Amino acid sequence: MKTEAKKLIATTLILSLFGLPGTLLAQGRRGANLVITLKDSSQIGGELIAVKPDSLVLVSPVGKDESVNINEIRSITFARRSKAGSGFLIGFLAGAIGGGVVAYKTNPDDTYKTLGAAAGAVLFGGLAGLIGLGIGSAAGKDETVQVEGISDQAMDKVMADLRKAARIRSVP
């Protein structure tokens, strides 16, 4: 392998390390962000800490603990953070690496190999970044679950999903 190709690959790998998503960093487990609409149309929002048999325990953004009775809830919205930016970044990096390497390897003219690799990286990186943007946007979409008036079996499934999303999964 030529020295230029080794330098290109090494540089690309080093730059890709800076683009790793923050979720790969060591962080403590967090509960899902919820917005709960009560039957009286008021709303309570915060991080889901625990699911008890008859209530949900949330911590509001200001740090206040709140317990919400299940029988008072009309709907629950899982407020997800947008993943559009990280989707674009991951797509762009993957496309840029692949496009740059392919363009470098397939260009027969040694004079323009580096320029061709840069153009391939930008072109394929931009295309893959747009695809990643779309996937990230779809992955970060809020989801609302109607709780009022659902069957007991459906409510058990909702409660199981909430337990999986809570900071503390098993509460007596």
Topology (elements, then pairings):
Blueprint: H1 3-18, E1 33-38, E2 43-51, E3 55-59, E4 65-69, E5 73-78, H2 84-106, H3 113-139, E6 143-146, H4 152-165
Antiparallel strand pairs: 1-2, 1-5, 2-3, 3-4, 5-6
Roughly how many Å is the radius of gyration?
A: 24 Å
Portion in beta strands: 15-25%
Number of helices: 4
Structural class label:
alpha+beta
Into which percent range does the helicity of residues fall?
40-55%
Flag low-confidence runs: 22-26
Global geometry: elongated
Distance between the termini: 61 Å
**What is the H/E string?**
HEEEEEHHEH
**Domains, number:** 2
CATH architecture of the largest domain: Roll
CATH topology of the largest domain: SH3 type barrels
CATH class identity of the largest domain: Mainly Beta
Quote the average pLDDT.
83
Largest sheet: 6 strands, antiparallel
Task: Describe the 3D structure.
The protein has 2 domains: 27-80 and 142-172, Roll (SH3 type barrels), CATH 2.30.30; 82-140, no CATH class. The radius of gyration is 24 Å and the shape is elongated. The longest helix has 27 residues, at 113-139. Helix content is 47%, strand content 20%. It has 4 helices and 6 strands. The chain has a 6-stranded antiparallel beta sheet with strand order 4-3-2-1-5-6. With 172 residues, the chain is an alpha+beta fold. The protein starts with a helix and ends in a 7-residue tail after the last helix.
